[in-house]
């Protein structure tokens, strides 16, 4: 893919990533004299008004929430061909997907990270928004004077709770989607995000895969990006088999990934509280209370 050189007033430096609906570039903001990420609607969706509006809805939502635990929107614009773009916080620490590829984390660090991810999702839930697409690629990291911060990204599928049911299309990332997200008429609420948090926890706490030369026959214990509920028991077994994972933590993840929404934690705040109670040795930092949920 050829670099566009400039997007609006921003000088493009390199490609950061591509997805089904958008391309993200690293660019330089001449006014702030700082790097930014610019998300541009993909050319093949240029004339789809529904996709275009969803792209803009994400920018509006992030701008309205404007929280340090979410990727922030600095500006929006439009290319000469009419495609919209949004100027976002650049996550210089990469994504959780990148880090998982480097091997398993120590258990306390993995639990603390999961708690920080849940704190970011709790910001959405307090504003009565459900993300619907939590996955390792949508958890980013940004450095700062107080240390590294977790950022929740890609709210392109996020919905207000009042509008998150009766959808007409399947949405989410396989392996992290709640079972009800396969039903276009099902009620999809904050408990779908809780399911995804549980799946992220199973992925974070799973042991490293064995080398192929010594692997035993049978199902792979890696949760991986496959159909949401199919690997639940296998992933549970993998976490339970990893040394140092408290059984109480494994139980929290089992409840979070229950097939029935009613059997899960009601939202990310409740999930995080249960996780921190289950692993008191893990340094779960206090999350700010934030504004109350809007009614």
Provide an overview of this structure:
- With 295 residues, the chain is α+β, with helices and mostly antiparallel strands.
- The chain has 2 domains: 6-88, Phosphorylase Kinase, domain 1, CATH 3.30.200; 96-278, Transferase(Phosphotransferase), domain 1, CATH 1.10.510.10.
- 30% of the residues lie in helices and 17% in strands.
- The chain has helices spanning 49-65, 96-100, 107-126, 190-205, 232-241, 247-256, 268-278; strands at 6-7, 10-18, 22-29, 34-41, 73-78, 84-88, 129-130, 139-142, 149-152, 159-160.
- It has a 6-stranded antiparallel β-sheet with strand order 1-2-3-4-6-5, covered by helices on one side. The chain has a two-stranded antiparallel ribbon with strand order 7-10.
- A hairpin with a 4-residue loop joins strand 3 and strand 4 (34-41).
What is the CATH C level class of the largest domain, in words?
A: Mainly Alpha
The strands making up the biggest β-sheet line up spatially as 1-2-3-4-6-5
First-residue to last-residue Cα separation: 45 Å
Report the portion of residues in β strands: 15-25%
Could you give the order of the helices and strands?
Answer: EEEEHEEHHEEEEHHHH
CATH architecture of the largest domain: Orthogonal Bundle
* CATH fold label of the largest domain: Transferase(Phosphotransferase), domain 1
> How many domain modules?
2
CATH superfamily of the largest domain: Transferase(Phosphotransferase) domain 1
Contiguous helical run count: 7
Poorly predicted runs: 212-232
Structural class designation: alpha+beta
- The dominant shape is globular
Sheet with the most strands, sense and barrel status: 6 strands, antiparallel
Helix content: 25-40%
């Amino acid at each position: 893919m050829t670099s566009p050189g400039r997007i609006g007033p921003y000088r493009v430096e390199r490609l950061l990533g591509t997805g089904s609906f958008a391309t993200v570039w690293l660019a330089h903001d001449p006014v702030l004299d700082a790097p930014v990420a610019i998300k541009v609607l993909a050319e093949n969706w240029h004339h789809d008004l529904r996709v275009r509006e969803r792209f803009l809805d994400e920018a509006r939502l992030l701008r309205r929430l404007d929280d340090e635990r979410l990727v922030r929107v600095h500006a929006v614009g439009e290319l000469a061909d009419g495609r919209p773009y949004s100027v976002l916080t650049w996550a210089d620490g990469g994504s959780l997907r990148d880090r998982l590829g480097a091997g398993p984390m120590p258990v306390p660090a993995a639990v603390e990270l999961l708690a920080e991810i849940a704190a970011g999702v709790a910001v959405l839930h307090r504003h009565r928004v459900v993300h619907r697409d939590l996955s390792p690629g949508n958890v980013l990291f940004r450095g700062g004077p107080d240390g590294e911060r977790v950022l929740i990204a890609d709210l392109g599928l996020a919905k207000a709770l009042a509008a998150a049911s009766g959808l007409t299309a399947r949405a989410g990332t396989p392996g992290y989607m709640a079972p009800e997200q396969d039903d276009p008429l099902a009620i999809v609420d904050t408990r779908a995000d809780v399911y995804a948090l549980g799946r992220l926890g199973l992925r974070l706490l799973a042991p490293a895969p064995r080398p192929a030369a010594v692997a035993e026959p049978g199902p792979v214990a890696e949760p991986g990006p496959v159909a949401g509920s199919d690997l639940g028991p296998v992933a549970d077994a993998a976490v339970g088999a990893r040394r140092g994972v408290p059984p109480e933590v494994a139980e929290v993840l089992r409840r979070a990934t229950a097939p029935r929404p009613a059997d899960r934690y009601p939202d990310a705040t409740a999930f995080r509280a249960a996780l921190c109670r289950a692993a008191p040795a893990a340094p779960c930092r206090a999350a700010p209370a934030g504004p109350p949920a809007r009614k």
